[in-house]
Amino acid sequence: MSAQPPFAERDQPFWEGCRAGELTVACCPRCDAHWFPSQDRCPACGSSEVGWTGVDPEGVVYTFAVVRGPRSDGIGAPPAVEYPYVLAVVEVGGGARIAAPMVDVDADAVWIGMPVRARFTPGVAELPVFHPVEPQIA
């Protein structure tokens, strides 16, 4: 099992969900808003009554960036990263948005509104990756 990723203590339910293969986001019992990363107060109504709820791992690409090469400061990506890759902000259940890498898709085939699904590494608390719901033609 890998080391625990750094996270705010209040985000532990998210990471535990990832370890269990579930997508969990912060929610407000007062106004039913959903968000990620967590905050001490609801960003919609300001309530301090913050909870967590599981949401459907399917969502849509809200926005994205294609990374085509290593950073300009000379520090490259981890060895497993291949260029180009896509970092997407995906809107999931209730409107929460999660920034995560996309896999199994050509970087030039990603589009805003693309249906995607979260994929987790079994037993590991790490950010999920997203892949297209339907196979894309490259």
Please give a structural write-up:
This protein has 138 residues and is mostly beta strands. 6% of the residues lie in helices and 32% in strands. The protein contains one helix and eight strands. The strands form two sheets. Strands 6-5-4-7-8 form a five-stranded antiparallel beta sheet, with no helix packed on it. Strands 2-1-3 form a three-stranded antiparallel beta sheet, covered by helices on one side.
Strand element count: 8
Number of helices: 1
Portion in strands: 25-35%
Low-confidence stretches: none
Structural Rg: 16 Å
Question: What is the total domain count?
Answer: 1
At the fold tier of CATH, the topology name is: OB fold (Dihydrolipoamide Acetyltransferase, E2P)
Main sheet properties = 5 strands, antiparallel
| Strand ordering within the main sheet | 6-5-4-7-8
Query: Which structural category fits the helices and strands?
Result: mainly beta
Distance from N terminus to C terminus (CA atoms, Å) equals 35 Å
The 3D shape can be described as globular
Relative helix content: under 10%
Q: At CATH's second level, what is the architecture?
A: Beta Barrel
